[in-house]
């Protein structure tokens, strides 16, 4: 690689890591004159890099701006490996065509990799497997349109199919897009129902932008609204328990797709509020017992009674009426 090419890459690295350096400072870092620096900046601009310069007493501050198209991007070895691995085994996004685009990008990158990096990437690809998550896919255009409408606060119309197959038209004020492990959701204010709703993006069709903007309403936590819709709303029972363990410990035991985990205390006595939905009380009881941690059931009352009945049956089956360990006046189970 020529000295000029190396200098251009060094200049690009300085612009990325230390925006706002003056022409004199950049020239000093590169060991060239300010005239040479200006020629190098012009060369980068000709390659597609947007490099605005603010005038000043020291020659002006240079910044790396946003170009109209993606110019060449210099990466070090660690960054190149990270990009290659992400493209070789992309996380499921639920966006139609993203896997094919990732493989096409990897093929382009592979042709440019130095030999030692190509060997590492090839070895990892040959010895790595991924499991099909089989999540519903969403057209990229639909996701982008919804994101734009959330950003510019534009009302949208669409037809929507609910989980039980019922369909109908909706007109909403889109607020946020939320991605879970399985699906993309739109959090929006439903104008017909005058309330906040969550919509699975893969169940939408005939999306239309209305051209009418709105003043956004306040919503403290759109992600929590989606979590409630996914983990609680579809089920017969809403279960709320307090677990005698820190939230990070409980989070490792329960998947975020089935439960809401929130800290309920700090310090040595840290406790966790765990909320989830259940169709049957026996399933909820087994889920809680499987945690292996002390807990107290806040709701529903039927689950508390079910656990006590289950405990008495287990004691009787093991030949005695001894009090189960860990019980107290609050009917703690653990």
Automatic annotation (TrEMBL):
Q: Where's the HTH deoR-type domain?
A: 4-59
Q: Which UniProt keywords apply?
A: DNA-binding, Transcription, Transcription regulation
Instruction: List the InterPro entries.
Output: CBASS_pafABC_assoc_protein, DeoR_HTH, HTH_11, PafC-like, Tscrpt_reg_HTH_DeoR_CS, WCX_dom, WH-like_DNA-bd_sf, WH_DNA-bd_sf
Recorded hits in Pfam families, A to Z, give: HTH_11 (PF08279), WCX (PF25583), WYL (PF13280)
Asked whether the keyword DNA-binding is assigned, the reply is: yes
Q: Which Gene3D superfamilies match?
A: Winged helix-like DNA-binding domain superfamily/Winged helix DNA-binding domain
Which GO molecular-function terms appear in the entry?
DNA binding; DNA-binding transcription factor activity
Any idea what this protein is called?
A: Helix-turn-helix type 11 domain protein
Q: Which organism is it from?
A: mine drainage metagenome
């Amino acid at each position: 690689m020529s000295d000029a090419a190396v200098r251009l890459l060094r200049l690009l690295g300085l612009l990325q890591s230390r925006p706002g350096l003056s022409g004199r400072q950049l020239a000093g870092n590169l060991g060239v004159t300010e005239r040479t620096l200006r020629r190098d900046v012009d060369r980068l601009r000709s390659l597609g890099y947007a490099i605005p310069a603010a005038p000043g007493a020291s020659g002006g501050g240079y910044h790396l701006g946003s170009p109209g198209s993606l110019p060449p991007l210099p990466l070090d070895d660690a960054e190149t490996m990270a990009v290659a691995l992400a493209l070789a085994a992309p996380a499921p996004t639920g966006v139609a065509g993203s896997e094919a685009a990732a493989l096409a990008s990897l093929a382009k990158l592979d042709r440019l990799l130095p030999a030692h990096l190509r060997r590492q990437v090839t070895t990892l690809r040959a010895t790595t497997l991924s499991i099909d998550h089989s999540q519903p896919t969403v057209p990229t255009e639909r996701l982008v349109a919804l994101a734009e409408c959330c950003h510019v606060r534009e009302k949208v119309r669409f037809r929507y199919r609910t989980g039980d197959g019922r369909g109908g038209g909706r007109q909403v004020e889109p607020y946020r897009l939320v991605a879970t492990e399985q699906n993309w959701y739109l959090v929006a204010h439903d104008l017909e129902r005058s309330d906040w709703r969550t919509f699975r993006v893969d169940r939408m069709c005939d999306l239309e932008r209305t051209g009418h903007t709105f003043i956004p309403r306040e919503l403290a936590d759109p992600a929590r609204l989606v979590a409630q819709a996914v983990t609680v709303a579809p089920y017969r029972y809403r279960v709320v328990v307090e677990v005698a363990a820190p939230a990070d410990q409980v989070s490792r035991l329960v998947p975020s797709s089935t439960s809401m985990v929130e800290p309920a205390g700090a310090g040595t006595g840290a406790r966790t509020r765990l909320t989830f939905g259940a169709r049957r009380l026996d399933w909820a009881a087994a889920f809680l017992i499987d945690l292996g941690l002390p807990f107290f059931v806040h709701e529903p009352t039927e689950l508390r009674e079910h656990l006590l009945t289950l405990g008495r049956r287990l004691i009787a089956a093991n030949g005695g009426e001894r009090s189960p360990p860990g019980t107290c006046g609050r009917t703690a189970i653990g």
